[in-house]
Amino acid sequence: MPDVESPGLLRRLKSYAATSVLSPRIIKFGIVGASGVVVNMGALYLLTEFGKIPYFMASVIAIELSIVSNFVINLLWTWSDRSGEGTFWGKLVRYHIGAGATAFLGNYLILILLTEFFGMHYLLSNLIGIGVGTFANYLINDLWTFRRKQLR
């Protein structure tokens, strides 16, 4: 287990943050993420209001649609300069694990919590949940899904 207070670890994290915060990649990631928000919110609204699917079930479908659309755009644009390790399918699986974890923990649970326990409208709850998972999602994608190919 790495020592969280280690000066080396802190230095590496600060260096990573400094080079990533305003990089073209993070700007692209933000644009792709915004398109994913539109896909997610649009699907959630349409499935709930017109499909008459309960919001908590419609959200699962909306999350999956946004994960797939974001994966394709991120693969072709945001991280197009990285061949990474593995095949298309391997990247898709890694993306689903990472995006699925952040979507479930950051999006879905907050959607349910804010809507059911605090009476917030489901669309506003969903938007807040998406925001919560965004930072973790970027880190997972940059460091794992679309990681640089290791030289051997």
Q: Please, could you describe this protein's structure?
A:
By secondary structure, the protein is an all-alpha fold. It has one domain. It contains five helices and no strands. The model has no long low-confidence stretch (mean pLDDT 85).
Structural class: mainly alpha
In total, the number of domains comes to: 1
Indicate the proportion of strand residues: under 5%
Multimeric organization: single chain
What ranges have pLDDT less than 50 throughout 5 or more consecutive residues? none
Write down the overall geometry.
globular
Largest sheet: none
Helix content: over 70%
Estimated radius of gyration: 17 Å
Order of helices and strands: HHHHH
Residue-averaged pLDDT: 85
Query: Count of helices?
Result: 5
Structure summary:
This protein has five helices and no strands.
